[in-house]
């Protein structure tokens, strides 16, 4: 619980209406699951964000970052301390051949803005449901493209609230990994270096990728997207399919019949259901093929 003194100090740098107390996180995740956050804070500017980050550090309050919750499972016990939401930091601008997008902007929207300015390089992102912040942290990718191919630099805060600019060479971008998590940076914006392109060709690629996503992925149900990383030399979805796990349910969570790499919330699943099904899939695939599937989705929060 936050003391009155802590709350009074917090309100010195951010408006009361930007702070939600005991906020259910199921309203902020793609899976529609998760317990409550002690404090759910939605800053409107970089200055407010830096204030909250510094305040959490100085008061030793746990700080958790949240984009749009698309690659996330929050346990049923929720999250203690502060959950910092970037849902108001969504500006996207274009400067010449560079696109600058704030952390809370949807990467799908960034790809659309690039297309509107006849810029190529972000077509692969037109079907990725996450935010810029999440995409940078995970080095998100799809259909042969990934963030590291076009990300020029990032503006971040340290956990002490210090502002830094990180160049591409310092980002340590690899398969679904980066320096951001290791160094606990809070991403404010990403700058992408794009190239001039033929708008007709850009649209053709984006339309094709959007069609593939809509026809192959179970978008009709809440989910965290692709649950598992691709094991070297294999495809996670094929291993799950060959393990005859499609349609398997625990509680309200189900291995999608449409795409085996997805676990969907078909009937008011709890996070406990969802995580139990993830573990069951991992155990079954390992038993059948000797391969341990690593999760791509992040699982955070406390047990109920």
Characterize the structure shown.
The protein is an alpha+beta fold and 304 residues long. Helices cover 28% and strands 26% of the residues. The chain has helices spanning 4-10, 46-58, 107-116, 132-138, 179-182, 199-216, 236-242, 271-289, and strands at 19-24, 36-41, 63-66, 72-74, 79-85, 92-95, 98-102, 119-120, 141-142, 145-146, 151-157, 163-167, 186-193, 195-196, 223-226, 249-250, 253-255, 262-265, 298-300. It has a 5-stranded antiparallel β-sheet. A hairpin with a 2-residue loop joins strand 9 (141-142) and strand 10 (145-146). It starts with a helix and ends with a strand.
Q: What does the oligomeric state look like here?
A: single chain
Which stretches are poorly predicted, pLDDT < 50 over at least 5 residues? none
Distance between the termini: 17 Å
- Helix/strand-derived category reads alpha+beta
- Average pLDDT reading: 94
What is the helix/strand order?
HEEHEEEEEHEHEEEEHEEHEHEEEHE
Number of strands: 19
Question: Number of helix segments?
Answer: 8
Largest sheet: 5 strands, antiparallel
Short description:
Helix content is 28%, strand content 26%. The chain contains eight helices and 19 strands. The protein has helices spanning 4-10, 46-58, 107-116, 132-138, 179-182, 199-216, 236-242, 271-289; strands spanning 19-24, 36-41, 63-66, 72-74, 79-85, 92-95, 98-102, 119-120, 141-142, 145-146, 151-157, 163-167, 186-193, 195-196, 223-226, 249-250, 253-255, 262-265, 298-300.
